[in-house]
Structures are given as structure tokens and as C-alpha cells.
């Protein structure tokens, strides 16, 4: 009887880990300018905003990342929970980019094209 209980417990734990692994996304963000040139050292902030996250095996899933792009303008985010995420990109000399994106596949690449700053406008003349 004890062997059956241990086997059942092991099967449930394995099933939960499989479900959790299947519900994450490896995210790659590519940052370029309007001339399609990579922007290195751009700050990329990703925050998970989707459905609730549970603790499994005492390990809490990370829900926020802040990284800088490499020389190719790329940043790779470790597996994150699937659902709604907020992506923000900040680079000197460019307009800030921000967007909410739904992720629900195992791997996703997001292409971000940054624009130069707009000229200043005043309502008072």
C-alpha cells in the first residue's frame, strides 16, 4: 500500500512539473532602428502581467526582468510564464517603446523598431 501511495505521489509531481514546463515561453527581443541597424545597450524591461502564478516545489517563478541588449541588439529572456507581458525598451537618442503582448507559445521573438525623438511641440506660442 505504501508503494502505491509513493508511486501515485511521484506521478502527480511529474505531471505538475510537465504542465509547468509546457506553460513557459523563451522570449527573444530584437531591437533595431529605422535603418534596420541593431541598437546595443538598450534597456529592456519585461514584466509578467498575466494569470496567477503558483509555487511548485517551493520554487517561485520570476515575473520581472531588466536586461541590456548585446551588440546585435538582442536580449534573451529565460523561460517566463505564458500570458500577458509588458515589454518596455529604452535607449538613448530614441523614443521609448512600450507594449503589452500575449505570449502562449514555447518560443517567441519580438522585433522592436525604435524611432528617433520627435521635435518638441508647444501649445503656447
Structural account:
The chain has one helix spanning 2-22; strands at 24-32, 43-48, 64-68, 74-81, 83-90, 97-103, 107-113. It is an alpha+beta fold. It has one domain (2-113): Carboxypeptidase-like, regulatory domain (Immunoglobulin-like). The strands form 2 sheets. It has a 4-stranded antiparallel sheet with strand order 3-2-5-6, with no helix packed on it. The protein is globular, with a radius of gyration of 20 Å.
The SS-based structural class is alpha+beta
- Widest sheet: strand order? 3-2-5-6
Question: What coarse outline follows from CA principal-axis ratios?
Answer: globular
Summarize the helix and strand pattern as letters: HEEEEEEE
Distance, first to last CA:
86 Å
| Domain module tally | 1
| CATH secondary-structure class | Mainly Beta
Main attributes?
125 residues; 1 helix; three-stranded mixed beta sheet; alpha+beta; Immunoglobulin-like; four-stranded antiparallel beta sheet; globular
Task: Offer a quick outline of the entry.
This protein has 125 residues and is α+β, with helices and mostly antiparallel strands. It has one helix and seven strands. It has a single domain, classed as Sandwich (Immunoglobulin-like).
Give the helix/strand layout.
Blueprint: H1 2-22, E1 24-32, E2 43-48, E3 64-68, E4 74-81, E5 83-90, E6 97-103, E7 107-113
Parallel strand pairs: 1-7
Antiparallel strand pairs: 1-4, 2-3, 2-5, 5-6
Amino acid at each position: 500500500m505504501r508503494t502505491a501511495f509513493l508511486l501515485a505521489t511521484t506521478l502527480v509531481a511529474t505531471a505538475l512539473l510537465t504542465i509547468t514546463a509546457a506553460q513557459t515561453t523563451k522570449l527573444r527581443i530584437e531591437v533595431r532602428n529605422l535603418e534596420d541597424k541593431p541598437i546595443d545597450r538598450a534597456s529592456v524591461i519585461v514584466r509578467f502581467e498575466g494569470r496567477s502564478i503558483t509555487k511548485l516545489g517551493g520554487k517561485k517563478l520570476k515575473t520581472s526582468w531588466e536586461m541590456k541588449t548585446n551588440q546585435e541588439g538582442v536580449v534573451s529572456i529565460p523561460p517566463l510564464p505564458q500570458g500577458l507581458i509588458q515589454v518596455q525598451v529604452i535607449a538613448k537618442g530614441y523614443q521609448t517603446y512600450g507594449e503589452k503582448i500575449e505570449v502562449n507559445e514555447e518560443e517567441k521573438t519580438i522585433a522592436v523598431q525604435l524611432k528617433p525623438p520627435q521635435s518638441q511641440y508647444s501649445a503656447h506660442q
